[in-house]
Specification:
The structure holds two protein chains of two kinds. By secondary structure, chain A is α+β, with helices and mostly antiparallel strands. In chain A, about 40% of the residues lie in helices and about 30% in strands. Chain B folds into three domains: about 70 residues; about 160 residues, Tetratricopeptide repeat domain (Serine Threonine Protein Phosphatase 5, Tetratricopeptide repeat); about 110 residues, Beta-Lactamase. Classes of the chains: A alpha+beta, B alpha+beta.
């Protein structure tokens, strides 16, 4: 898991990433100095819960949520048993980081399946 | 004039003549560009800056000014970075931050100041400059993130140096901009007591009178956020004493959305292939306009889902200190949802085939643009 997060840390614009379970428990994290694990973990869990509740209500299942704010970006992706959360700089183009993030999602999924 | 001079002079003279006799942004930019090609940086800067006085906001001229300033500052930047690396000192940080600020690279300036305050936490000037840059951003863009950081930085200055006069004036500006008039008066009166000959402040105070104190259920943070919600400052700072010249502020009411017009536009856009639901929600999450196509979700269920997602996203952004939620896209196995939040209004679309994830958000943003115009942030 750590090697996946390390690889993500090398992607330009990535400020940090973590893997959280569906209950909000942090499995592993590698965050930049301005991000606090307990805050990111709690907020990711709250976001996942809120989004899942909302989409469940309309009979859907969410695969990923790409969120852009005025001073940052975040991607939350379902890897099956857990969620990969990636926090990025506001100036980074999400499209350019997408490939690496998708690759990371696949790797976390494989690890989660015991592969 | 040598041969080189002859060849240099001729095209340059033509461009000078063109810029003088038929002034236009392109003619001025071409002349400035020629000076750059000839290595005449100062001349290029003079031409471009003069051009901007007539043709304000011309992107090409702005680019030229920035390019020359960057070239000019390269040595100073290198020297100051070396100084900071070897022996971090507040003055070097501030000078370097000022250079980046002058170049318009506010992110770089703020990063430097943040680093300075981490290493030298008692450094008042760095906190003050950080507060000033954030405040100016806030006055122009009305994004709560900047306002809150301005408030925090200036509060830190107040803590470290209670009589700091520039900080007092910056706080007075912030308080007045968000409608905390009584607090602004307090700061201005303190400044007037310190400098009794400040007639500009006296005149402004006479006009303001004695405003009532803030209600107990309001604080500066909530006022800062409220301005973001409305998309405008509570008070204009026009005529405010000691305001930095040329500072543009975002004042005036946010555009109201006409529900009838909105419904018409929503219906028109709902005809785009793949659009299953399209809705506009007000600040309270109530429907302004909504349409559901075949295969779409029940309108009320869609409204609730979007309101929930936007609320969760907004809270996450705020708590993680990454500003205000601006837009997002949720991917489902057979489609997705796109959400844009602008000036307190939420625009949302639920889509399926043939619309693809990477097309949905640009289409929705185009729709938002038609509805309420440009501008970023929430």
């Amino acid at each position: 898991m750590r090697s996946v997060l390390r690889a993500l840390a090398d992607v330009p614009g990535v400020r940090g990433s973590m893997v959280v379970t569906q209950d909000g428990i942090v499995v592993d994290s590698l965050l930049g100095r301005t991000l606090r694990q307990e805050v990111v973990g709690a907020m990711a869990a709250s976001l996942i819960l809120g989004t899942r509740k909302a989409v469940d209500r309309v009979g859907q299942a969410f695969e990923s949520f790409a969120l852009v704010s005025t001073h940052g970006k975040m991607i939350v992706a379902d890897t099956g048993s857990a969620f990969l959360v990636v926090v990025l700089d506001r100036n980074i183009d999400l499209g350019s980081a997408e490939l690496e993030i998708r690759s990371a999602v696949r790797k976390v999924k494989t690890l989660g399946e015991g592969g | 004039m040598g041969l080189l001079g002859f060849f240099q002079g001729s095209p340059l003279k033509k461009l000078e003549s063109e810029a003088e006799n038929n002034p236009s942004p392109d003619a001025v930019a071409a002349l400035a560009q020629k000076h750059i090609e000839l290595g005449q940086m100062e001349e290029a800067l003079v031409v471009a800056e003069r051009g901007l006085q007539t043709f304000r906001n011309t992107p090409r001229l702005k680019d030229i000014v920035l390019f020359v300033k960057k070239k000019r500052s390269a040595d100073a930047i290198r020297r100051l970075r070396d100084e900071i690396r070897v022996k971090p000192a507040a003055q070097a940080y501030s000078q370097l931050a000022d250079i980046y600020r002058d170049l318009g690279d506010l992110d770089q300036a703020l990063d430097l100041l943040a680093e300075c305050t981490e290493r030298l936490p008692g450094e008042v000037a760095a906190w003050r400059l950080m507060g000033q840059i954030r405040l100016e951003n806030y006055l122009q863009e009305v994004i709560a993130y900047d306002g809150l950081h301005a408030w925090r930085a200036l509060s830190k200055v107040r803590e470290l140096s209670p009589e700091d006069a520039p900080c007092r004036m910056l706080l007075a500006q912030l308080f007045f901009a968000v409608g905390a008039n009584a607090l602004s008066v307090q700061e201005l009166k303190a400044e007037l007591a310190a400098t009794p000959t400040a007639l500009d402040i006296k005149g402004f105070l006479d006009d303001l009178g004695n405003p009532p104190p803030l209600p107990k259920d309001l604080n500066i943070e909530s006022l800062i956020e409220r301005c973001e919600e409305t998309g405008a400052l509570t008070n204009s700072l026009k005529g405010f004493p000691r305001l930095r010249p040329g500072l543009v502020q975002k004042t005036g009411a946010a555009p109201k959305i006409n529900p009838v017009a909105a419904t018409g536009l929503v219906r028109e856009r709902a005809g785009t292939p793949g659009v299953l639901n399209l809705a506009v929600l007000d600040r309270e999450g109530r429907v302004v306009a909504s349409v559901r196509n075949e295969g779409g979700l029940d309108e009320e269920a869609f409204r609730e889902a979007i309101a929930q997602v936007a609320a969760s996203a907004g809270e996450a952004c705020r708590r993680m200190d990454i500003g205000s939620f601006a837009r997002g896209s949720v991917a489902f196995p057979t489609g997705g949802a796109a959400i844009v939040r602008r000036r307190g209004t939420t625009f949302a679309m639920f889509f399926g085939d043939p619309m693809k994830q990477d097309r949905a958000l640009p289409i929705l943003e185009d729709f938002v643009q038609k509805m309420i115009g440009g501008g970023g942030g929430a």
